[in-house]
Design brief:
Elements lengths: L1 H6 L4 H10 L6 H15 L1
């Protein structure tokens, strides 16, 4: 869920780069980890 939520915030340019190069933006993994921790607190 955390990855899906973070992926929804990618800009069109970031999505294009992800598809072309297979690389996520620098901020992406930190955002996924933050969202994952938040989801864990909700349980």
């Amino acid at each position: 869920m955390a990855v899906d939520e973070a992926a929804q915030t990618l800009s069109a340019d970031e999505r294009e780069h992800l598809r072309a190069a297979g690389e996520v933006p620098d901020w992406f993994l930190a955002d996924v980890e933050r969202r994952y921790r938040e989801l864990g607190k909700q349980r």
